[in-house]
Structure formats: C-alpha cells, structure tokens
Design brief:
This protein is an alpha+beta fold. The protein contains 16 helices and 38 strands. Strands 8, 11, 12, 13, 15, 16 and 17 form a 7-stranded antiparallel β-sheet that branches. Strands 25, 28, 29, 30, 32, 33 and 36 form a 7-stranded antiparallel β-sheet that branches. The longest helix is centred in the first third of the chain and has 20 residues. The structure holds S-adenosyl-L-homocysteine. This is Protein arginine N-methyltransferase 7.
C-alpha cells in the first residue's frame, strides 16, 4: 500500500503530494517524535512513579484490587510502574499502532505480560464488560496526554469519556490535578511576533514610514499556541506587570467537562505599562495532597535546583488582541477562554456584568487581516528586525537607479515597498503567492496601490505582458518562502530567478547576488536528548524504543537534517564555522549537482552532538545577512543564533568526545551534496 504525503518542493516553491512507502508516515512520526525526550525527562518519570505508587497504596489500603487504566501508554512505561507498584492489572491503551506494538514487546521483555494488556485502540473505542477490552472499570486512571498548552492533545475529551465509560466513580487519578498559571507582561520582543511595527526608511527625499493598516492593528490574530523555551528569554526582554496567578485547575479524579468555557481572574498590576502578552505554563500534582508536583514554571519563578530541561513541555506565549495600558494597583480582569483543544485570553478594565457568567465568552480569535496567516510569529519578528531591514535598505540603495525596473520574488515581503521608497521610479513588481488581501490593506494604508503591481503568476508562467513589455533590471528577494522548512529551501529564489531569465536585462542586478551554506560542529547543552537513546528508564528496559527510533531515523538512505530554532537551544561551537557551498544567483541554476568535501577541525574539548547548517545571503559585495550564527560570544564557544530563523541540525548517530591536542580524534570529514534537480541537500560526516 502507498500513502500520499504533502511536501514542499524547493525547486518549485509549491506543495506537492508525493507517493511514499506505506511505512513512510510512521517512520517520520517516530523519528521526529518526543518519546525519547519524555523518557529522558527524569523529573517527570520520578514523579509519575511516586504518584502511581501512592495511588496504588491508597486503593490497596481500602482493601480493593488495583485496576489501572493507562491511556496513551506509549512505551508502556506508566503501566510498568503501576505493575511494579503492586497493581493487580493494567489496561494500557495506545492508539498509534507502531507504538502499541513496541509496548507489547517492552512489556514482555520486562516480564509484565501477565499484568499488562496492551490495547491498540483510541480510548473512546475501548469497551468494558465480560467480552470487552476491559473486564471491568478501572479504579486508577493514569495518563500523560498533555502538551505545552495542557489541553492541545485532547486530554479533556479523553478524560470526559474515560470518566463516563471506563473508570469507577471516586477513582484515583495520576496526575490528580493540573493547574494553569499566567503572568501579564510587556515585551517589545514578543509583541514583535504578533504586530508589524512601523518601518523607517531614510530615503533621499526624506524619511518615509511604512505603517501597518488598521485591519492589522485591530486583528486578534490566530489561536494557534505559541510555545517556546521561555527559559531562553532573558529577563531584560520583558517587564513583569503582574504576579503569577492561577488561571484555572482541572481535577482529573472527578468527571471532566470538555465543553467550551471561560475562566476569569482579577489582577492587580505590580507596575504600570502596556499589557501585551500573557505568559503561561502549568504544573501537575501527582497526588491529592500536592506533595508530588511537576512544574513547567520558568526560571524567574522557581529555584534553579528544581530545573529540568525538556522539550515536550515548554511554556506558552499568548498575545492579547490589543495592547492595553495598565496602571500599578489599578485592578484589571483577565479572561481565559478555551474550547476542547486551545486557549486564548482577553483583558478588561472593569468587570462587565454580561462577561461575568462563565460561558458568555469571546469567540476564538480569527485573523481578519490575513497577515497572521501569511506571516508566522518568527516571520513577524524578522520583518520587525530593524537591523536586518537596514542591511536591505543599504544594499538596495547601492543597486537601485531612478530608471530601475524592479521585480521582487519572496513571500509576503516588504522589499518592493522599500525599493519603491528608495527611488526606483518605475513600477515595482512583486510576486506574491499568497494573501493579496493582506497586501491590499497594506498598500492602501501606505498609498501604494498604483505604485506597486502584484503579479499573481508563477515565475515560469510570467509573460512580457505582465511586465508591460519592460525588462527587469533589478531582481530582488530576501529570499523567504513560507513553504521552506530547512534553510536551503529558500534557494527556491534561485529556481525562480532561472525561470524568469528571459525577462531580465542583460546586465541585470540580482540581490542577493549569492548565498552560501555554512556549517559548524556543536555540543548542545540539552537538545541532544531528543535524539539520544535511553536504554533504561526508571529501571525499565526501553531499548526496543531506542531501536525503533534508530530504525526510523535510518529509514531513508541518507539521514536528514532537521530544523530547530537554535536561539532556544544553547550550544557551544566545537569547530570554526565553515563555508561549505556557494550559490551564485547571478547565474542560472546549473544542471549538475554542487558538492563539497573537506575536513573540519575540532578546536574545543566537548561532545560532538552534530553539525549545524545555515544560509548566509550576500546582498551586494560587502553586505551580508546571516540566517544562522550571529556570533560566538566567548572563549567557551557559546553561540548566538538569529532569533527569527530555524537552522538545520544534523545529529551524529553516535556522540564523539573530543579533546584537542590529545590522542582523541580532532577532525571530521564531510561530504555535502546539493542536488539541483530536487533542491535537497544530502550530507555525510565521518571521523
Ligand atoms: N504514557 C507514555 C507515553 C505518553 S505520550 C509515557 O508517559 O511515557 C502520549 C501517547 O498517548 C501517544 O503515544 C499517543 O499516541 C497516545 N494517545 C493520545 N491520546 C490517546 C487516546 N485517547 N487513546 C489512546 N492513545 C492515545
């Protein structure tokens, strides 16, 4: 059987449906899954174990048999904990077939097959009764169905159903309760991920300001959660406006309602400022007394000794629909609304009577300006990055002449607007693949409707009539395309440039004139955990899982690099950054592949976890922008990364410890190949 998978084609910029092996989907899912990260999460595992032991004891003390329902068993870990703690029987439910199969093997290997029954079903399909999946209802409910937003993986409907059909009244639940906390902050940095700030352009005829349209200013944005490693956000990047308060709790031992609802709290600002963002995280109490607590609280809230790094649970950033000035001591009301799977917030000055009733809550935010559909949060941040804009302005000033005819190829880009203000008197053209509605608001607000023409043709379908029989003298791109996943996918600009060649003047200026791919060997502080084998977890042998992940990672002949926003994942460089490939946009894409082989020397002692790769764009001869490394900040090799871009990480299959100037290995050889037919990069590293 074959399955179809959607994938962006970097040579066409389009989303294509590829026929893949039937196992492709699940290998991808396992290779990129968070199972390894969860098994490495010592704090989580220890606390689940404590909570499960306590729950089993409470049931036993009542003289009852301990019958456990473990929804979403994954590796079977929590069921094995329960069986070890003396549970009489466990029903381990897992909907994802490859995981259910792995759980069967792991349970068997650890000697629990007579105590644990793995059921490969969604919990809502599980039946109870003499002929059912479960003989009887359980009196202990164990789950780990939470995401960073707590409810995004469907925990609420799953609990609602389980209480109705699968567990006894008064059952013990591990975790017993979850609590969501919020804190109101002002943060220019985070607000810049949600609104477009005015862009200042120093043109020859004075300063021009590009403004965002009112439609964008008043837009509530999109409801998708913004989850980040908040612990990487320095305290200088936000101002706390309120104490941390409890927004709501859910008691998992009682019937749970998943229907939409609202929660409201009163806040007394500790400082005057502009309320822009609600930071939020949760904790879970594994037992009713609250003695076994597992918290996602960020560094400024909890002591560092309680710190556990994890990537499967982070913290949330919620953007208020508008920024609201608040005064120290003057109370405000914060409302959290949720549906079954997501949360959103609003702030009010006074207690509105009609809003008092829970349930009378605001609708889930829907983006009206379309900019929030065109630009994701990092893209907003990138467009608001004044340093970056300045580089483009400087470069454009160098190449634009009063008679330039300019074509811009990038998704949702402000480059045509910059080019217009910087003096190209001829009509600017802009290729736009998405959201011309957002740009029509934008052009109207900036009186540019008749100045910039939007071409909705694909590059290969461009005709001279689109261009009113003019030839393009300046071709610009950031480049940026929404379908790009890995840094080199933005090389689609090169393919588009090749497709429009016949419309370019013979001495056309292409900006960026070229790009280069850079590479560096790094040691991660923590990110290595997500791809590292676990062996045993709390005494249980989970190697089957390690093998399964390894097998999935090797499913494609050459291992792939994966995108990660490295500003969230501290690492140190073990080698100098090295340029490995260059791409000359002044020429068309060659027929042959581009490849590079060489060696990279290790300069620092450390564990080589992998290689990081990123693109640098050379706008003009002496102006470049990096989408990766910004700088190495000290002798220890700590790296600073572009905060608006994801970099490519290629994890080595085994970690190499190095100590330069000793007998230990000090160099890697690499082979990197850019296939011009597919737009993909394959790589291989050897010691
Ligand atoms: N319990 C394991 C794994 C947790 S990951 C551990 O703690 O290590 C959550 C797992 O639950 C995933 O494997 C997912 O496929 C499964 N899952 C989520 N909702 C489910 C449901 N309603 N029924 C069955 N499985 C579910």
């Amino acid at each position: 059987m074959k399955t179809f998978c959607g994938r962006a084609n970097p040579t066409t910029g389009a989303l294509e449906w590829l026929e893949e092996d039937e196992n492709y989907d699940y290998h991808q899912e396992i290779a990129r899954s968070r199972y390894a990260d969860m098994l490495h999460d010592k704090d989580r595992n220890v606390k689940y174990y404590q909570g499960i032991r306590a729950a089993v004891s409470r049931v036993k003390e009542r003289g009852e048999k301990a019958i456990v329902l473990d929804i979403g068993t994954g590796t079977g870990l929590l069921s094995m904990m329960a069986a070890s703690a003396g549970a009489d029987f466990c029903y381990a439910i897992e909907v994802f077939k490859p995981m259910a199969n792995a759980a069967v093997k792991i349970v068997e290997k650890n000697g629990f097959h007579d105590k644990i029954k793995v059921i490969n079903k969604h919990s809502t399909e599980v039946t109870v009764g003499p002929d059912g999946d479960m003989q009887c209802r359980a009196n202990i409910l164990v789950t780990e169905l939470f995401d960073t937003e707590l409810i995004g993986e469907g925990a609420l409907p799953t609990y609602e159903h389980a209480h109705k059909y699968l567990v006894q009244e008064g059952c013990e639940a591990v975790p017993h309760r979850a609590t969501v906390y919020v804190q109101l902050v002002e943060s220019k940095r985070m607000w810049s991920w949600n609104k477009l700030f005015p862009v200042h352009v120093e043109a020859e005829d004075g300063e021009k300001i590009i403004v965002s349209p009112s439609e964008m200013e008043n837009c509530p944005g999109v409801p998708s959660v913004c989850d980040i490693q908040l612990n990487q956000m320095p305290s200088s990047d936000f101002t706390v406006l309120s104490d941390v308060v409890t927004m709501f709790s859910v008691d998992f031992s009682k019937p749970v309602r998943s229907a939409s609802t609202c929660y409201r709290v009163q806040l007394e600002p500790v400082k005057s400022g502009k309320a822009q963002v609600v930071l939020s995280w949760w904790d879970i109490d594994m037992d009713p007394s609250g003695m076994i607590n597992c918290t996602m609280a960020p560094y400024w809230v909890k002591s560092t000794s309680a710190f556990q790094w994890r990537d499967h649970w982070m913290q949330c950033v919620y953007f208020l629909p508008n920024e609201e000035p608040v005064l120290q001591g003057e109370k405000v009301y914060l409302t959290a609304c949720r549906d079954e799977y997501s949360l959103w917030y609003k702030l009010q000055k006074a207690s509105g009577e009609e809003d008092n009733k829970a349930g009378a809550c605001v609708e889930s935010p829907v983006c009206r300006c379309q900019a929030h559909l065109l630009w994701n949060r990092p893209r907003f941040g990138q467009l608001n990055d004044q340093n970056r804009t300045r580089q483009y302005i400087k470069a454009l000033m160098k190449v634009l002449k009063t008679d330039s005819v300019c074509l811009s190829i990038s998704d949702g880009s402000l480059l045509p607007v910059l080019a217009h203000y910087l003096g190209a008197k001829q009509v600017q053209y802009l290729f736009l693949f998405f959201c011309s509605l957002c740009f029509s608001f934008f052009f109207r607000a900036n009186h540019l409707e008749d100045k910039i023409k939007i071409l909705e043709a694909r590059p290969e379908l461009l005709t001279s009539s689109h261009l009113e029989d003019k030839k393009i003298s300046v071709l610009v791109g950031e480049p940026f395309f929404t379908t790009s996943l890995l840094p080199w996918h933005n090389l689609y600009f090169w393919y588009a440039r090749t497709a429009v060649t016949s419309h370019l003047t013979s001495n056309v200026t292409v900006l960026p004139q070229s790009a280069s791919l850079h590479m560096m060997i790094v040691e991660f502080q923590d990110l290595w955990r997500i791809r590292s084998p676990c062996g045993t977890c709390e005494g249980f042998d989970v190697q089957t899982m390690d093998d399964m992940i390894k097998n999935s990672l090797n499913f494609r002949e050459s291992k792939e690099a994966e995108p990660h926003p490295l500003w969230e994942y501290p690492c140190k460089s073990l080698s100098d950054p090295q340029e490995v490939l260059t791409f000359d946009f002044r020429k068309t894409v060659p027929q042959h592949c581009l490849s590079s082989e060489g060696s990279v020397h290790l300069l620092r002692k450390g564990k080589s976890h992998g290689a990081v790769l990123w693109m640098e764009y050379h706008l003009v001869a002496d102006i470049s922008v990096s989408t990766g490394l910004m700088q190495i900040s000290n002798e220890k090799g700590n790296c600073e990364w572009n905060p608006h871009c994801k970099q490519a990480v290629y994890f080595f299959s085994s970690v190499i410890e190095s100590e330069p100037l000793s007998d230990l290995p000090t160099a890697f050889t690499y082979a990197i190949n850019f296939n011009t037919k597919t737009g993909e990069i394959a790589m291989d590293f050897k010691l």
